[in-house]
Amino acid sequence: MSIVRRISLAVLSASAIAAAAQSTPITLAVDLTDAPRKMLHAAETIPVPSSSQPTPMTLVYPEWIPGEHGPTGPLINQAGFTITTPSGQSVKWERDPVDMYSYHITVPAGVSQLDVKMDFLATGAGNFTEGGSTSANLALLSWNTVLVYPLNGDIAHTKVNDIMVSPSITIPAGWRFGTALEPTGGATETSSHVVFQTVSLYQLIDSPVLSGRYFREIDLAPDVTPKHYLDLAGDGPEDLALSQQHIDQFSKLVRETGVLYNSRHYTSYHFLVTLSDQVAHFGLEHHQSSDDRVPEKTFIDEGMFAEAGDLLPHEFTHSWNGKYRRPAGLATDNYQEPMKGDLLWVYEGLTNYLGDVLAARCGIWSPEVFRDRLATIAANLDDARPGRTWRDLQDTATAAQILYNAGGAYDNWRRNVDYYNEGDLLWLEVDETIRAKTKGKKSLNNFLAAFEGLGGNTPPEVVPYTFEDIVNGLNAVVPNDWATFLRTRLDANQLHAPEMAGINVLSGYQLVYTDKPNYWSQLNESDGLDATYSLGFTVSANGTVGDVIVGGVGYNAGLAPGFQIIAVNDRAFTPGLLRAAIDNAKGNGPAINLIVENTGVFKVISINYNGGERYPQLERVDNTPDRLDAIIAPVSGQ
Prior knowledge:
This protein is an alpha+beta fold. It has 3 domains: 1-212, Immunoglobulin-like, CATH 2.60.40.3650; 340-508, Neutral Protease, domain 2 (Orthogonal Bundle), CATH 1.10.390; 519-613, Roll (Pdz3 Domain). It contains 20 helices and 30 strands. Strands 1, 2, 4, 7, 10, 12 and 13 form a 7-stranded mixed β-sheet that branches. Strands 15-16-17-19-18 form a 5-stranded mixed β-sheet, with helices on one face. Helix 7 (349-361) packs across helix 12 (419-437) and helix 13 crosses helix 14.
């Protein structure tokens, strides 16, 4: 038999196996009782058609996880991976030499199912590229970390919506859990062993489980259908004691989104919030829930609550913008097909803008805090991102999969996923342009109600879109050359942000600089000094220089990230002394002399700067339409 013929039969046989797996559910049991020891145990049964001959098959570990925008499946933390038959016969697997996420096996003759076991080592920092999130008192289970699934012949013919799974969990005694999955039978949130209803593999991976010893579930907006829940797990019971005011703000968030998006695309929704200093802090979106991981005191400390104020609104918005309406390049059929992020300036950029707006509309942020946030974003992108002269906004989206791990030294010159914050400026300008052209009769709200609310209320599903769909949707609200409008800003290579008209021309405000830190500058200076807009760098409390703006005052004087400032004007460094030196140099004052250390080498750097301290603010422009405050006004009336 020729090689070509053998390969063809192998593909057909693998297709038959995958088809059988789709008709009979995979069972997946995950044991979380060792989560406090940073290990999860999984047992998976994969049905296969019995054959009189040994049959080749390929299993894959999920690689491209929706919402993570890159090949982030935490394969490195998989351990104890074994495959056996029901009789206990070991099935040898062989990793593909090119695709590390693929395992080639041969199913023995007469075998109708495979029993797979694996452990997941939740030993990393807990960010989504490592998948783990556990402490002594809680665990967040991401199902993609503890399973493999069969290819339907090859990647191109594999659809995870067609693969059904019957999942279950075992949690430590006394723990409770929250998830968008529906338990079967008499299971409750206090059960130690819970079997969930059979769902597609897509829906399973889209439905994480939060479990913990200290757990609290709060009904939000009880007048709204479908139901919404705030599920909290913390390292201590005191961290779950958020005030009624904050509960009311989250309830208002539910009402505001219903009006704004004119739809709900879920049967119920769970905000899964991990309050812990033992895991990484981030958010990840899902159709019917969000995975929000914040420091343990976030909901009981007012400053921390405001600092994380846009997280839940952002991830909640993704249920509409990102999960339901999704860029075509991200709407893949399985977890092995590479994603294309060219429209992430919509997926994440628009969501970032709306998350900030909703944080203000539901009262988490005051108008002043919102404006200070916008001023900080505008100043950073307009005055402190020289990397835009070579990397345009479009490339930050197209190259997202390599930029998520960027940051740190010289980040202003490299740029990373700037489409988040620059999305605020871009979509603010779109919003205000619509308002200006229609004399306030229409706004971005009209676009969102039609675009995100397409089809009305629906169960979770994916409706892809293209750049042309965005342009057509905006033109349906108000005719304009939106294609040129957007492309001009996306493709610009210029020193200053091209979207600043949304701040300085259309908003009713203008960006100015004063010598007083705004709300967000004060937060940034909790551990050092933010001299970004004066000396062109930040410095920690111990004198370590952070990012240095390429072409800025400090950079031109010879500073670089990682330098240690030992002394300021011959005195031992403190942030207060450096601030005083900046103030003393204002006008015609003396140069600022620094003694710095760079990998064991000491030198003196003299900085000639007389501009004083500079912090961004938004200043109201008299006799202009106040569109910015109109944007953040509540729309639900409740």
